[in-house]
Amino acid sequence: MKPKMTLKRIAKELGVSISTVSKALHDNKEISQENRDKIQAFAKFYNYRPNNIALSLKNKKTKTIGLIIPEIVHNFFAKVISGIEHVAKLKGYNVLIAVTNESFDKEVINMELLVHSNIDGFIMSLSKETLLNRDKHHLQETINQGIPIVMFDRVVDDIDCDKVIVDDLEGAKIATQKLIDTGCKKILLITTEDFINIGKLRTQGYLEVLRENNIKQDPSIIYRVSDMGNLERKQEAIEEDINKIFDKVSGIDGIFAVNEIYAITALNVARQRGLRVPEDLSVVSFSDGILSQHSRPSLTTISQHGFKIGEEAATLLIDRLSHEDEEKEFRTKIIKTELIERDSTR
Amino acid sequence: MKPKMTLKRIAKELGVSISTVSKALHDNKEISQENRDKIQAFAKFYNYRPNNIALSLKNKKTKTIGLIIPEIVHNFFAKVISGIEHVAKLKGYNVLIAVTNESFDKEVINMELLVHSNIDGFIMSLSKETLLNRDKHHLQETINQGIPIVMFDRVVDDIDCDKVIVDDLEGAKIATQKLIDTGCKKILLITTEDFINIGKLRTQGYLEVLRENNIKQDPSIIYRVSDMGNLERKQEAIEEDINKIFDKVSGIDGIFAVNEIYAITALNVARQRGLRVPEDLSVVSFSDGILSQHSRPSLTTISQHGFKIGEEAATLLIDRLSHEDEEKEFRTKIIKTELIERDSTR
């Protein structure tokens, strides 16, 4: 049985990247004329139909949403999915989900796969590699071909589409201020690298509040976790890093962690070092998942309202699909965060 | 734009169930000749292609696995997905996921959707409604049409296909024996209703161990949770029920809960009632998720090895897809459980 030709196979056969094949098939001028001709001829020979041909079949609606998420183990994405499914069910839509595992190639392949499955539109949160690469041709071309995209949480500014974002800056400010208000003087920030927009904004919120309170920022207590790899193995490495910071810097009395996993890891370190939470050390997390509720001590946290994000994203997409003939302005919905006080702060 | 005809739409138009339409289109004799004729004519008129016609397009492999799971919020399914994705990536397969939210109709619709997306085969864990209904025509017909299915965790005996199951009976026996060995005399069982096979087997394991240890079984401390509804709202109701059992029955010194959520809920009740865990009350859970690790006290639990289940399921499916010309016996892989001792037992 002859296997079906795919982007991946073409890329492999011709020894080029998936992105190059995808761009060439969309006649993107970034690829040399020679390479475009070669790749297009190869695809044609193998009867490969790129998205824009699939699209000519797209005059029938399938009432299916394609959902692309970077990972599945974070409870936040599970909540977003529940919110999307809730609205989809009410409106008679189905949802097909694909996971990128933070890979750019997987994101491109999954979009291709779902377009071939005749989904009507996408809801997506970008992979870390996509944010890092800044290669976004697959998003723009999907939109150009008339398939709407709603981005949530991990979005990029330079693609025009509907977006649902959390007020990360404001949330981080509330979290940091809470620590200061309860007497913390030396607050360790555990955050992501800056190419992740949400990590960057949360870092910025932390820094702004320090400034507002006339506290000098100290680079030795800003820990940027590089986490492109496996989550579970990473947790040990993060634990080690936090321990090293506590070894070097004395007097840390507060921690603001930009996600639950980092916060839980910080709680583990506190336990190992005999620090009482919240008496010796206060911890505030970001995103109110199942871990924050059930860890001991339970975590004071900034709620991201994942379910609501999912509901809003599905509503925006279905609304756009139902009024495709109208030219609607793209909208960005900002979901307000909220401080949920539990036992990890004074 | 004319909407595409779907099973759901046909069912609605003709005022019959999705199951009836699906059966009629597969010429299932359970449906009267008259109704079959009517439904088939209607589908034909609207140019609806049921699975078996879609199948004539299926001589090209897409290297895509369709994954159908009952829910997304349980960490167990997230782990299974990670295991499936891991093997799929190694073997060059993609995965599309659909969630049934425990609904039979959603299961049938999602399978249809994925067959139309030209997936090569299914990996699935059945919805509670499917287990309850005992309507399985959609599974048998999919298999008859040459699309292999691998079932995991929530399986049914009377469908011949590859299966991956956890040794639930053995796991429950280990859990119950652990409680008895550490001195528990009155063990509350928190389990599901019996139509869920895994709940039934775990209940059976509990009862067998009681018998082996000459402990009389007491129906007042066997609590069967009926949980067809919303998980989060249910948790409060479960908490209330457990409290009522503690009000009525004195001397409960052990709890075996068949999943993490039930175990965590039991810990909450213990806290409310001033019972110390494990001094006054020991708790053993089933399935080693993120909650068991991070609750306080952390939970002694039976590990289900979700990642491994996912790996095995994907391996079985891809193996079958790669040797489609051979007549292979169906296999059932049993994943051994393991006791992980933490702080909730003495």
UniProtKB/TrEMBL annotation, chains A, B:
SUPFAM superfamilies: lambda repressor-like DNA-binding domains, Periplasmic binding protein-like I. The keyword Repeat does not apply. This is LacI family DNA-binding transcriptional regulator. PANTHER family: HTH-TYPE TRANSCRIPTIONAL REGULATOR GALS, LACI-RELATED TRANSCRIPTIONAL REPRESSOR. It comes from Maribacter aquimaris. Residues 5-59 form the HTH lacI-type domain. Keywords: DNA-binding, Transcription, Transcription regulation. InterPro entries: HTH_LacI, LacI/GalR-like_sensor, Lambda_DNA-bd_dom_sf, Peripla_BP_I. It holds the Pfam family Peripla_BP_3. One of its GO terms (molecular function) is DNA binding.
